[in-house]
Amino acid sequence: MIRWIARLIGFAFVVVLLWALGSNLKAYFQSPPPATAEHEFHKEPKELHLASNGPFGRFDKQQLQRGFQVYKEVCSGCHSLNRVAFRDLHALGYNEAEVKAIANQWPTEVASINPETGEPATRKAIPSDYFPSPYANETAGRAANNNALPPDLSLMAKAREGGAAYIYSLLTGYQNQPAALLKEFPTAKTPAGLHYNPYFANLNLAMPQPLTSEGQVTYAPGNPKPTVDQMAKDVAAFLVWTAEPNLQGRHKAGWPVILFLIVATILAYLSYRNIWAEAKRKVAPVGPMDPANKAKRTRASKKAGIDE
Amino acid sequence: MSFAWAKPYEPKTELGRWMDERMPLPRLVFNAVGGGYPVPRNLNYGWNFGVLSGIFLTIQIITGIVLAMWYFSSADGAFTSVEHIMRDVNAGWMMRYAHANGASFFFIVVYIHIFRGLYYGSYKAPRELVWMLGLVIYLLMMATAFMGYVLPWGQMSYWGAQVITGFFSAFPLVGEPIRIWLLGGYAPDQATLTRFFSLHYLLPFVIAGVVILHIWSLHIPGSGNPTGVDVKSEKDTLPFHPFYTAKDGWFAAAFLTIYAAVVFFAPNSLGHPDNYIPANPLATPAHIVPEWYFWPFYAILRAFTADFILPAKLWGVLAMFASILLLFFLPWLDKSPVRSGAYRPVFRRFFWLLVVDVLILGWCGGSPATPFFVALSEIASAYYFAHFLIILPLVSKYETPLPLPSSITASVLHGEEAEAAPIGQAAPAN
């Protein structure tokens, strides 16, 4: 009884699925979906090697400082970084006084109230403050940017497929729309107010090219030349840090744990062998799965003319 | 519990005797996972995944309780509290990554455990209840994992909650009221988040309770084994402790090493980047996908694209629920008296086909719904249902199994003659 019901239900599902498959295939071959510019011209992120990559990765503090400088002088005009506090900059190698100065001189002030009247006011940032937003609220951010709200950058390196490599590729990927694209997809012309970038999912990005020329940011002596490529790398490295300030600690903590577990595994394995051997009980593969048995059986079956 | 020759518990100390007369907890432990539980001596490493699932349930409960000390179940504060845990709470990142990846590893372990049961016929008499209680645990795990994924209140959390509770609206008349009742509103919001947190904290303890029933019902007939032959004498078994505690011990340590490598060096590799974007009811992500362990079911859901008497969406939801519920009937669908797939040449081929099929379904479920993946998931879903509901009953009826060994002990011996006999013939006499 139960097997008849099962067969019936099984047939129902299979018939419905094959019906759906048939109608999908028919629709596909009658009118194949048109190719899209996104599908043909979108590019995967370029490779980016950062000091923080890999299980031994450590932050390059010098690079993070440069990246912070790029954020401060270029990105922070539009993008907030509201999950990072000024005090966190100690991790980049700035000392107490430097952090205080950075907070104090930050171009945007922190929202506050007038202590006497209670009226809304602003004050200079202190190290315990989080980076203030360049816009007072979302509406202000949209109003200033053609209705495209610049996203917060704190978690950007974890919130996009490709992470830091994506950020680096996007920042260095601005170009004119290829002629081949316009020839193939005349309707896919980048609309006014948007910017062509093959690393962006739908190819047209509201953000204008932020890093435009060499020397846009002046690095302190002893640092590499601030080319567009270098600045993009540096700010990508900085955003890896903002997305996960504990990354280096995580790598550092991981190795002792792994080594401990490997030693524990070896000791536990030896004691396992010891326990099973002591009882003079062989640890052997089981009957039919033992390769020797299996070969023997196959040979015997073949000889007897039986197809297994 | 199970066999006459099981070693009886004998307290060795005065305190042990005192305790045993009043509250025999040590006796219970000894009989359950100590020297008093005889286990077939021929278990392979497929049998290690039961204990491992227990280990991962424990890891999830411990890390989860610590995380709950810092987490706010508020629609405004949940995402920020998770970031606070990641950035400022001491070792908070370790707890969160251990918990998030612990869920994935729990599912890896449980999937291997389930497929081991499918291959070796662990669902067959007298272990039907063990199997069914295991499926109850699996369903509870799915509910717990789904609600846990909603808690960080990222984009995938929010839209996952939207899509999954949306399944219920496929049912005519009652569907929409049920959906609203589950969410506590018309869309996921504060009420949803708070109740999901409450249930996410509760269900693991329910799981722990069902685990006790699962183990209890297992210990009545005793563990199965790779030959599927019943235990016949004391020679066929070894006491659980020290033999299997040692085997489980080293294997667990090795498996935890892999887990630790993911937690410390690739903690986001199993997650989705969109969940690092705070929930935004006004922006739908380009591709809404659940966590990887739901992909096969998500593929089945999306495979139903044509209205056929019933609306396509209802077919999809019914099929998705049916794909798990049918497993409850497995003991009665597969009537072959031979348990182990090792002695069932036809069954074995279909089994491996099923494994490939489920992997393909997973691949489809995690990919965008392009014509190729929809067509592929339609074929793979059709095989999934055909396998359990049509092929398995037929195979169990018409297949000629290989000769079984006379006993577990006999099968462990190398070059045993019965093992080498051609199929369907007696062992050569020599």
From TrEMBL, chain A:
A GO term from the CC aspect: membrane
Binding residues annotated for heme c, in chain numbering: 75, 78-79, 207
Segments for region (Disordered): 286-308
Cofactor: heme c
Family annotation (PROSITE patterns): CYTC
Keyword Transmembrane helix: yes
Keyword entries, A-Z: Heme, Iron, Membrane, Metal-binding, Transmembrane, Transmembrane helix
Cofactor note: Binds 1 heme c group covalently per subunit.
Protein's name according to its UniProt entry: Cytochrome c1
Transmembrane helix listed as a keyword: yes
Pfam families per record: Cytochrom_C1 (PF02167)
Domain Cytochrome c residue range list: 62-243
Automatic annotation (TrEMBL), chain B:
Record domain Cytochrome b/b6 C-terminal region profile: where: 230-406
Topology with respect to the bilayer: Multi-pass membrane protein
Keywords: Electron transport, Heme, Iron, Membrane, Metal-binding, Respiratory chain, Transmembrane, Transmembrane helix, Transport
Ubl conjugation as UniProt keyword: no
Segments forming domain Cytochrome b/b6 N-terminal region profile: 15-227
Location within or outside the cell: Membrane
Name of the protein described by the UniProt record: Cytochrome b
